[in-house]
Amino acid sequence: MSSLPEATTPSFDWRRPLRYLWRVPLLLLHALVGLPITLAMINPLCARISLRGERLDHWVIRIWSAGLLRVFGLRSRRYGTPLPGAALFVANHVSWIDIELMHSQRMMGFVAKAEIASWPLIGWVASRGGTIYHHRGSNDSLHGVMHQMVERLQSGQAVGVFPEGRTTRGDSIGVFHARIFQPAVLAGVPAQPVALKYGNGGDAQTIIAFADRESFAANIFRLLGEPGRVAEVHFLEPVAASEDGRRRLADTCRERIIAAMAL
Question: Pairing between strand 158-161 and 172-173?
Fold first, then answer.
């Protein structure tokens, strides 16, 4: 594990109840009005319509994701440029909101644990947005995931992965599992590391992360009351697929993310 700069310890915040007064209604509005519209526009017809060089269904998902971030008081800032076309986007994993932060910048189909499909809001959008679900501990599921990843990359689509395999406490970056990089090697597409930082200089990583034994619903409710923060997305220098294989890809991507997190 590689340690990150220590997060600041939050003190008592008397403004938290006030934030709930306006963020809870906003979340309900975003879910009850924005979500049905978003899901309705994820269809073959919108996929054929281009808006400023971007597929309309992809644009709708980006806008919905950006709106969800704002409901939680997060203001996204992008550094660097995401690769166009087929690419494997590789990010550190802090929270469920990582997917929304990435989707607010660039549409990609994520590889995620199967449980996400049953999560309210996030699960519905993830499923319609082309998420590839993996049942942990199942080799058959893993083989199926790898096959789908290769197919999507070879067809010119982007795939997003969290190579640590699970969310962390936010204070360190775990080992990257090299096997998840194999589809990029087989498809001959680059991997682009992405550093996700919450707060000034990443000082809110542990706050955004799940607390010990904290459920998805409890995490959502807690984050709704948090102060407004910046959420940084750093698209770093891509790593080309080569004969050196998946282990080199994994190690190089991890090193670049760790370096970006330390800045």
Answer: unpaired
Helices 56-71 & 16-29, crossing angle to 10 degrees?
Answer: 160
Structural domains in the chain plus CATH codes: 2-261 (3.40.1130)
CA-angle at 29, arms to 59 and 67, nearest 5° = 35
pLDDT tens digits for range 240-254:
987 678 999 999 999
Cβ–Cβ under 8 Å, residues 92 and 261: yes
- Is residue 218 within 8 Å of residue 232, measured between CB atoms? no
HSE value, Cβ hemisphere, 13 Å, CA-based, for 202:
23
Where is pLDDT greater, at 84 or 5?
A: 84
Beta bridge partners of 191: 88, 239
Coil/strand/helix, residue 124: helix
pLDDT confidence band for 30 (50 / 70 / 90): very high
Strand locations in the chain, DSSP E? 2-3, 50-51, 54-55, 74-79, 87-91, 109-113, 132-134, 158-161, 172-173, 191-198, 229-235
- H or E element at residue 68: helix 56-71
| Sign of the dihedral through C-alpha 224, 67, 216, 253 | negative
Q: Is 230 left (phi over 0), alpha (psi -120 to 50) or beta?
A: beta
> In angstroms, how far is the first alpha carbon of the chain from the final one?
18
Query: Confidence class of residue 3 from pLDDT cuts 50, 70 and 90?
Result: low
**pTM of the entire predicted model:** 0.89
